[in-house]
Write a structure and sequence with these properties.
- The protein has 85 residues and is an all-alpha fold.
- The mean pLDDT is 95.
- Helix 1 packs across helix 2, helix 1 crosses helix 3 and helix 2 packs across helix 3.
- It contains four helices and no strands.
Length: 85
């Protein structure tokens, strides 16, 4: 678990799965950037804002991450099959 996810859990009280989605929302929808340049206070505010966004649009984010994991797994399996060939 990344230090960002640990901080997100501390700041929002969410579970590890939600911390991952919250981190994604922070990167993609709030800062449109990496999180490296943000102060701790900015990260704390963004985590709380992202948690609210996740709560409002949970089905959308859960579907996105489910599909992303499925595509990743398919790519991994294809790579393994190609490596054996």
């Amino acid at each position: 678990m990344s230090s960002y996810r640990e901080a997100i859990i501390e700041d929002t009280g969410c579970n590890p799965d939600d911390a991952g989605m919250t981190e994604h929302i922070m990167r993609e929808d709030i800062f449109h950037s990496t999180l490296d340049w943000q102060t701790r206070a900015e990260l704390r505010r963004a985590a709380r804002k992202a948690a609210k966004i996740l709560a409002q649009d949970r089905p959308l984010y859960e579907e996105y991450f489910t599909k992303t994991r499925a595509v990743f797994e398919e790519m991994r399996q294809t790579a393994q099959q190609n490596a054996k060939a």
